[in-house]
Amino acid sequence: MKRFAKAGLVLALTAAGFAHAATELVIATVNNGHMIEMQKLTPFFEKANPDIKLKWVTLEEGTLRQRVTTDIATKGGQFDVMTIGLYETPIWSKKGWLKPIATDAAYDVDDLLPAIRSGLSTDGKLYAAPFYGESSMLMYRKDLADKLGIKISDNPTWTEVRAFADKANDPKAGVYGMCLRGKPGWGDNMAFLTTLVNTNGGQWFDMKWKPQIDTKPWHDAVTFYVDMMKKDGPPGASANSFNENLALFNEGKCAAWVDATIAASFISDPKQSKVADKVAFAQAPTASTPKGANWLWSWNLAIPASSSKDEAAQKFIKWATSKDYINLVAKETGWASVPTGTRKSTYANPEFQKVAKFAEAEKKAIDTANLTDSTLPKSPYVGVQYAAIPEFQAIGVAVGQQMSAALSGKVTVDQALKISQTAAEREMKKGGYYK
Predict the structure, then answer these.
(1) Tell me: the pLDDT tens digits for 395-415?
(2) I need a surface site. Which of 194, 236, 237, 375 has the fewest CB within 10 A?
(3) Domains of the chain, residue spans
(4) pLDDT at residue number 411
(5) Which burial class, exposed, middle or buried, applies to 383 when counting CB atoms under 10 A from its CB (0-12, 13-18, 19+)?
(6) How far apart are alpha carbons 39 and 30 in whole angstroms?
(7) How does pLDDT run across 19-64, given as a tens digit for each residue?
(8) What is the DSSP code (8-state) at residue 22?
(9) Residues 299/30, Cβ–Cβ less than 8 Å
(10) Contacts of 43 (CB under 8 A, 6+ apart)
């Protein structure tokens, strides 16, 4: 009898243990500053939700994209929450690979910046919640501009910015006139170069999906880029992307830099930047049209359809992308460190405005970017610095390699454009876009 009683007690205790077992959420994310900060704040979430434990898989951007794309396409179920971009969200939601984000009144979806919210919605439903958003803009050394007697307008042209870069370029003093991305990749050099092509009146594909790379706007944009970087850029520019240029700027080695608005908070932080008190901000430079001159991007949290932990995942995503989370970061590390580019309330906050001298320029850049109207000739795709079709990744990578080769002098601009056009045509024909 005692033996049965003992067995019953063990079963009861085991059942109680299962009843209280925490749900483990596996979260795939990118290894950048804002996401690292989110991991440090994990205890706040776990304390408020003792039945949920967070397990982080932190990866470099390229590796993250490969891992989450493979997992979601094969319904692998490795991750309960994924960090995905503005590029993937509309494609994956239409394929039925993502669960909609369940928002409530407290989350205040209307507080999300319209450009970002629109890019993450399909048929009026939000399929990923923005953790931080960005556009691109001009960041420059105001002290050098003042010294040279140059005034840069709030909406500069590339002619104006190039004149400043030429004059400020002083390699002997360790200052380069212009820092721009050169490292090959659809999200590396091609993010910047696509905006330069857009503002020169170009596009990736015409309305019949025919690639437009070997055309005058592309030739004008890439020739301008290569000439300027050879004259005013740092050595080895063809290997530089965001992080390398950020390090150069923070060391005082760049007079001007056009890149992600998210950089503004780093270069104006005296703990990270030697020139924090010498920087100024303007909109991304334009050429023949303002359309598509500045990009739009966001890193977002999404739930793969294969996850069986929907309730816990929804709770976590709402926490990490809420107004309360932004206030928590401000309380723990200061308003200068909060993730930006997602909520109107952040920009309206006087405490944020006080420390973020870039706030106005950043918000204007995000608000003016238009995912559905970013090229002068009409285009069939959604996206400013990318085309939201599955084939674009392969095309962007192939073209990025050619542009990097042109920058390093391994091929001419004409050769790079011809090879790129052929590669793009091959991919689009293979994808069945045209014969």
Answers:
(1) 999 999 999 999 999 999 999
(2) 236
(3) 22-134+297-355, 136-295+378-430
(4) 98
(5) buried
(6) 11
(7) 457 899 999 999 888 999 999 999 999 999 999 999 999 998 888 9
(8) P
(9) yes
(10) none
Token pair for 379: 């285009």
Whether the CB-CB separation of 139 and 264 falls below 8 Å is answered with: yes
Angle at 297 between CA 295 and CA 298, to 5 degrees: 160
Q: What pLDDT score does 61 carry?
A: 83
Coil/strand/helix, residue 307:
coil
Q: What does 376-422 look like in DSSP terms, one character per residue?
A: SS--SS--SSS--STTHHHHHHHHHHHHHHHHTTSS-HHHHHHHHHH
Pick the CATH number of 136-295+378-430 from 3.40.190.10, 2.60.40.10, 3.20.20.30, 3.40.640.10: 3.40.190.10
Please check whether the two domains, 22-134+297-355 and 136-295+378-430, share a CATH topology. Answer: yes
Q: Which residues fall within 8 angstroms of residue 99, CB to CB, at 6 or more apart?
A: 127, 302, 303, 304, 305, 307, 310, 313
User: pLDDT tens digit string along 358-400?
Assistant: 999 999 999 999 999 999 999 999 999 999 999 999 999 999 9
- Helix 413-430 / helix 216-232 crossing angle, nearest 10 deg: 130
The answer to whether the beta carbons of residues 144 and 135 sit under 8 Å apart is no
If you compute the radius of gyration of the chain from its CA atoms, what whole number of angstroms results?
Answer: 24
| Inter-residue contact 366 to 342 (CB < 8 Å) | no
Mean pLDDT of the chain: 93
DSSP state of 285: P
Architecture of domain 22-134+297-355: 3-Layer(aba) Sandwich (3.40)
pLDDT tens string 136-182? 999 999 999 999 999 999 999 999 999 999 999 999 999 999 999 99
CB distance 166 to 232 below 8 Å: yes
Q: What's the pLDDT score for residue 21? A: 73
Residue type, 408: S
Residues 6+ apart with CB under 8 A from 60: 30, 31
Angle of CA points 193, 197, 202, to nearest 5°: 150
Residue 91 contacts residue 69 (beta carbons within 8 Å): no
CA distance 159 to 37: 39
